[in-house]
Specification:
With 247 residues, the protein is of the alpha+beta class. The chain has one domain (14-245): Alpha-Beta Complex (Creatine Amidinohydrolase), CATH 3.90.230.10. Helix content is 34%, strand content 20%. It contains six helices and twelve strands. The strands form five sheets. Strands 1-2-5 form a three-stranded antiparallel beta sheet. Strands 8-11-12 form a three-stranded antiparallel beta sheet, covered by helices on one side. Strands 3-4 form a two-stranded antiparallel sheet. The termini are far apart. This is Peptidase M24 domain-containing protein.
Length: 247
Amino acid sequence: MKKTKLIHEVRAVKSKKELANIVKAQRISEKVLQKTIEKLRDGVTELEIANFIKKTHLRHGVNVLSFPPIVSFGKNTANIHHNPGKTKLKKFTRRGGADIIMFDFGCTINHYCSDMTRTYFWGKPTAKQKKVYQVVLEAQNRALAKLSKGEKKAKVVDRVARSFLAKKFKNNFKHGLGHGVGTVIHEWPNFKPKSEDIIPVGCVMTIEPGIYLKGFGGVRIEDMVLITKNGYKNLTNFPKNLNSAIL
């Protein structure tokens, strides 16, 4: 006897056409991110960069974003859903080290969303800044490695990243590891500690671990992946190693 599927389960599995829209949206946002990095300078504000992101998407023919762009500088990067404001980018900070920069944005093509987060250092990062970055990247890589082995239980994938982060920064990772992406930016299924979701082949998920230290700053790295029968395919094509994060 076949199980009756709910509408969110049906919508989670993407057709070739749906997937093509998501990938196109992602490629456009990657071009925008590259232009945005080139736009950075001492004294520029979060709000100026957020507006630049919007205008640059428009130049690529995109007039609907997945959500309002998250642009945060310095200690504001510790705020998971920071609203861009008047904070200015500074090469040298009072506490030493680099100003941390976080970008989280995406756009839509034919109503289908993309989503990506990258974190950067404006200047030479301190040892602690480097450590936080490398820990977050390793957490993401561990989750991806679990997916590559065919794991489909959402809470198991979440646990791999969450337990690693907890060993380095206790009780700091306060959100889910990722979510489905489609015509809305947060779709079923979800990578969460208590999730009973089984990730279906053909759905698009985000993998976005993060560390957020109040008064210091935060790091989040987010990719979108297509879940395949025996693993995954990364749909994000933008550098994320530590060297590429130092501007």
